[in-house]
Amino acid sequence: QVQLVESGGGLVQPGGSLRLSCVVSGFPFADNGFSWSRLAPVRGVEWISIITSGGNTTYKGSVAGRFTIARDNAKNTVYLEMLNLYSEDTALYYCGSGGQRGPGTQVTVSS
Questions:
Q1: Which pLDDT score, from 0 to 100, does residue 41 have?
Q2: How far apart are CA 12 and CA 5, in angstroms?
Q3: Which of 42, 50, 66, 71 has fewest C-beta within 10 Å?
């Protein structure tokens, strides 16, 4: 069955960085685009970034220049590199494709 499993979250200080990973199984990875989104208690769900099957990327304005989405077709993995994190980036981050999503990985930015 389709599975997306995120990892790499954790507690980081403001200004710090994290790299999230999403390992995908159960459908043809190379033929699909993937997105990262986040769920925060007050703001709700926010779309963060998308990468197409061809590697084209788009970002939410507030993360552009700080976050980078990438994919490794050989490893069936999508990444989200996050730099210069703010407290407002605190959320549950999850990847998705074709209506499927993973359980998410928690990112907490706090001093």
A1: 84
A2: 21
A3: 42
